């Protein structure tokens, strides 16, 4: 393989990987705070794709507005889902609410997929690129669109890191993830932290969908594929945990 092709493949892999990492950060944020495996995370990605398509392709507005609209829109969707469904389930189901939440998010996944099919049909929708043009360095071609996506993904993760580490709300989220009962004793509104964490995790999925729409068209099938790819490591880890505990005791406590 030629070096130029190898470099371009690395850049393309970094672009795709940055989007999946952005979604994974959102998924792990929700799981770390609430202990919920959000099966509908890929569908939140899909909603971000559709919002980006509507703003950038149908309204013809600049792509930064589409990304901002996707993040805010899916954040609001996440808040509504947490306050309207998950929080209600947590209050009414008692100790079994975590298991019931798995069924709830699976149901949301099916509902969102079928709503997308009913409203938008099975036709895939996308936009050509965020930024047109390319930069040629010798035999290597760097597409501006890929560089912008990679840069915005890194910027988003950096902003999230600063928010979690250095703001009072971020510290409250961290305290809730470490010990919810102790955080509530100290005056932290745990229910609010759950809603904010779920909303931020959803927003990250929406932003990744808005950024990746140039490479992965929006459709319900794409949402299912992404959900499966994100959740497969979770099931692999849980399935093999008893076996790992037998051969490597320390692994069972990870």
Structure summary, number of beta strands: 2
Instruction: Write the element-wise H/E pattern from the N-terminal end onward.
Output: HHHHEEHHHHHH
What count of helical segments does DSSP give? 10
The average pLDDT value, as a whole number, equals 79
Distance between the termini: 40 Å
Structural class: mainly alpha
- The shape, in one word, is globular
Strand order of the largest sheet: 1-2
What is the gist of this entry?
It is globular, with a radius of gyration of 20 Å.
Task: Please give a structural write-up.
The chain is mainly alpha-helical and 254 residues long. It has helices at residues 3-34, 41-58, 63-93, 97-120, 144-166, 168-178, 180-185, 190-212, 220-239, 241-247; strands at residues 134-137, 140-143. It has one domain (39-229). It starts with a helix and ends in a 7-residue tail after the last helix. The longest helix is centred in the N-terminal third of the chain and has 32 residues, at 3-34. Strands 1-2 form a two-stranded antiparallel ribbon.
